[in-house]
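Structure ticket #2291
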Amino acid sequence: MAVSKEEIIQFIQLEFPQALKKTQIQDITSKGAELHYQVDQEDLRPGQTVSGPTLMLVADFALYIAILGHLGLVKMAVTTNMNINFFRRPDGTRNIRAVCKLIKVGRTLVTGEVWLYSIGDEEPVAHVIGTYALPQKS
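Resolution: structure written out below.
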């Protein structure tokens, strides 16, 4: 069941309003999503580098948005696993772009990948593989 970008934004504003304070949903595709995350001082570690926990947050949210876009407004889908590979220093003066693609959508688990970029740079700063557990249908 495909859900529109507007429906997802309304759902997130209602259920997780804090998630949209620094994140803009750019695009929803049939099995993916693109987000932009606004980096500020709270996201940086020494050396003006975007922190690893911030990158994980962005990747996790991108995966969740892609799942909502593909399956519908699944409130209780939860992260079960995330693996990140850091490739290069994310520039703390640039926002982060997350591009997510769902790899496998099963009955109980969804696995996807997220490529993270400093906006304006074509080379990724990190790659994430994540799995979400879907709630059991009653």
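Closing remark: The helical segments are 5-15, 52-71.
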